[in-house]
Amino acid sequence: MHTKERLLIPMEGVSREEALPCLLKCVASKEVAGFDSIECGTGVSSQAQLAAATNWQGETAGGKEHGDAYGHLPADAISIPVNSALQHDTNLSYSIPKSLPASPYGFHVLQIESGPNEMAPPVLQSANSAAVELEQPKQAKLRSQPIPLGKSRRDSGIDNQRDKRFDPFKTWSGRFERQLSSLRGIPQEHDGEANDGCIVEVEPLPAVDRYFDALEGPELDTLRVSEVSVLPEDKKWPFLLRFPISAFGMCLGVGSQAILWKTLATSPSVGFLHVSLTVNLVLWCMSLVLVSTVSLIYACKIIFYFEAVRREYDHPVRGNFFFAPWIACLFLVQGVPPSVAEKPPTALWYALMAPIFCLEVKVYGQWMSGGQRRLSKVANPSNHLSIVGNFVGALAGASMGLREGPIFFFAVGLAHYTVLFVTLYQRLPTNVTLPKELHPVFFLFVAAPSVASMAWATINGYFDYGSRIAYFVALFLYFSLAVRINLFRGLRFSLAWWAYTFPTTGFSIATIRYSKEVTNAFTQALSVGFSAISTFTVTALLVSTIVHAFVLRDLFPNDISIAITRKGPTSSKPVAPLRSINSTMKGRETLEI
């Protein structure tokens, strides 16, 4: 400050003439009118305004004498008397810089009321408008503003809110996407950009050993306690990421039922049932719709999440389900109603067997090469799907009148089924005990010999001894699994239940074919009994699947089996134990509810 002034304030017990340094005196702003404080009922007196206006007009006229060329006054040249509650017959003067108004609110009024050509000091206009504005103070309102046109989502910050943790599994998440973005002029981000504390990186495909080290269970779909998922476990993933290739098991179950009811309607050994072909037509149409729907959904997954499909193909268990779509199509060919087509074209058989042959060359070559995917290491019940495709193809081809092609696939399937059957029976030390809810997968043991007996009977022309040997093997395996009732108590619903349907239905069809060659009351009773069990199982399972899919909406949980890391955990942070503790607590809460 340029000058020192006395501040005379009447206080009890303190002399009016007592002087204190201005920097050490604490005075509340509300006690001094006009000092950056606005209150209703306190304003600037009209005499003070008149004096300030007169002083301003006089000083402006002689601006060249006391101010600059524009008539601006020095900072210490403006003196305004202030009328406040503390002023008792005494006018206090304060030196106020010309660049600071008495109140920010008054400065706002100044900008509104003054014209573009008017020149007035902020202090004076603040004083003139204070009495008007302070009578009815208005509250400022903040309203959301739209994003200006031409401003990108990236510039506005909206794109940064997108969860990028799923990007590594998308089809265009790699180098090709960055090249396309560069051509469109979109600025590129670093691969290690953080998103909510998670670093987004393109995780390489894990080796086969990692699937066994990180996952557990016969389907290898449960993350071990010591492992951490590359995708968020506390968030529901996109539907396509949660849709597994094993969903084609539903197509196998419904398609095999269409074949069963066609056999019941056309076989003379069970003609006493008088089954109509209408049932076969309805089930075939349902199977056609189901195959089309599941295929369309998984085709979308291939288009948008190809990296996830690659992980499923490299999975020791999921890789076998890539045979299921083609087997389901072969079921449609075999179960076609006579009213739709009497005999499907043979070109269709070659078109469906070509991808099966390509998959077999890949899978069987890995079994035989002795590498990371040798059979002794990756053997599991789902490997039967890669074997059954040979027998189903042989049966369909022989039904169309083909000869050499069906025999070729039958021979290939028989050789590899023998090796697989012995390997699975050995129960190597690397195999783990199967959880209770996934024991139905063992019914896949029944599928291969059942279909093989029918395939050889169709190729040979009648149910000879070779067909009967395969059928009796399937019969023994069926009874050995069915009597173990304790394994199927207290099961919770899972897609693995569809493993019941296809093998049991195939065995029922084989029983009907056997009763056609050996017709008696016993074989006819077996045909009816096994067919009833198969139909009831499929019906109950189909209803349960619909309820869990559309009512409970828990049919497709997060597919942890494709979200493992390329390497094992290196940190000692207790992330996995916390996961197990949380799951335990959730189980307790469920029991309490």
UniProtKB/TrEMBL annotation:
Give the source's domain of life in one word.
Eukaryota
Keywords, in A-Z order: Cell membrane, Ion transport, Membrane, Transmembrane, Transmembrane helix, Transport
InterPro entries in the record? SLAC/SLAH, SLAC1/Mae1/Ssu1/TehA, Voltage-dep_anion_channel_sf
Quote the Pfam families the UniProt record gives: SLAC1 (PF03595)
Q: Which stretches are tagged as biased composition: Basic and acidic residues?
A: 152-164
Where, by residue number, does the polypeptide cross the bilayer?
239-261, 281-300, 321-341, 347-365, 385-402, 408-428, 440-463, 469-488, 495-514, 526-552
Q: Which Gene3D superfamilies match?
A: Voltage-dependent anion channel (1.50.10.150)
Would you tell me the Gene Ontology cellular component terms?
endomembrane system; plasma membrane
**UniProt topology in membrane:** Multi-pass membrane protein
Region of interest called Disordered, as start-end residue ranges on this chain: 132-164
GO biological process terms, semicolon-separated: intracellular monoatomic ion homeostasis
Q: List the signal peptide residues.
A: none
* An example Gene Ontology molecular-function term: voltage-gated monoatomic anion channel activity
Q: What is its main location?
A: membrane
Localization per Swiss-Prot or TrEMBL = Cell membrane; Endomembrane system
PANTHER family in alphabetical order: S-TYPE ANION CHANNEL SLAH3
| Family in the record | Belongs to the SLAC1 S-type anion channel family.
Q: What is this protein called?
A: C4-dicarboxylate transporter malic acid transport protein
Organism from which the protein derives: Musa troglodytarum (fe'i banana)
Q: What is the lineage of its organism?
A: Eukaryota, Viridiplantae, Streptophyta, Embryophyta, Tracheophyta
